[in-house]
Inverse folding.
């Protein structure tokens, strides 16, 4: 499956006092991209939680910071599935500056588990998502 890409603009709230993106902000950017990726696949997370008592949770994250982003940069955040297990997905994510250079800013490997909302125990991925993968 090719990578899904989602644009993110850096706002003041994403930066530190020097106008450089605060390291934890990249986690929010990657979360947004994963949510929009699921939406693009036709997976409604609110409906999964409401109708099937199912939710996703990040259980592992490996992140490398290559270069900084700054206030008002336009970033492209990608999501690509690298591994699928019965109750989790591993994704490679990158954050790049769109212009002028497309520089790689952050690379990450994220594992998201599929959980039963009531007991927060692992459960199989929804068939609709498995079919898309």
């Amino acid at each position: 499956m090719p990578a899904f890409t989602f644009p993110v603009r850096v706002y003041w709230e994403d930066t530190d006092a020097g106008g450089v993106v605060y390291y934890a902000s990249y986690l929010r950017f990657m979360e947004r991209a994963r949510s929009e990726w699921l939406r693009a696949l036709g997976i409604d997370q609110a409906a999964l939680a409401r109708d099937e008592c199912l939710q996703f949770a990040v259980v592992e994250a490996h992140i490398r910071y290559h270069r900084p982003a700054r206030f008002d940069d336009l970033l492209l955040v990608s999501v690509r599935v690298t591994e699928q297990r019965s109750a989790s997905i591993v994704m490679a994510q990158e954050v790049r500056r769109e212009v002028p250079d497309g520089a790689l800013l952050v690379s990450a490997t994220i594992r998201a588990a599929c959980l039963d909302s009531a007991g927060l125990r692992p459960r199989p991925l929804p068939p609709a998502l498995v079919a898309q993968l």
